[in-house]
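Example record

One chain of 159 residues, shown exactly as stored in the release files.
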Amino acid sequence: MQGGGDRTHRAPRAAAILGLAGTVPFILAAAMVWVEKDVAEIGRWIVVALTYGAVVLSFAGGVRWGAALDTRFGRRRQARQFTLAALPAAAGWASLLLPPLPGVGLLIAGLLLAGLWDALDTQSGRLPRWYGALRGLLTGLSLAALLSILARLVLTDAP
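Predicted structure tokens for this chain:
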């Protein structure tokens, strides 16, 4: 996603397109919770956001699991990395079991922490630089949409 001639700093086109497309369900749900007047429909869009967020956190955990395959890790550190890699999916699943307000809050925390973890691994060289830039953009868009949904939940009588 960064400029310059060095292709190692630019996200592969497919990753950028698919990543940006992956933010659409969050953005659509955020728009719909503000546009809809019917409380049941607002609730449905919140469920859409929660469900999709659980999927995204599972994907983020999968990236972490893949990074833990690094054979430079000692067995003990690798075991810790595999264990931590399961946390995003667990947070996503838990968000589905909670009422909407804390569920959306948990998704926001989970996406933020997963994004920060990826940023740290990008800075350390364990993940490609382009991934950190792309991940930052995607996380920012997703968090903005979820914060909008959270605001709708807090500021109105939405479910």
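Notes: Residues 17-155 form one domain.
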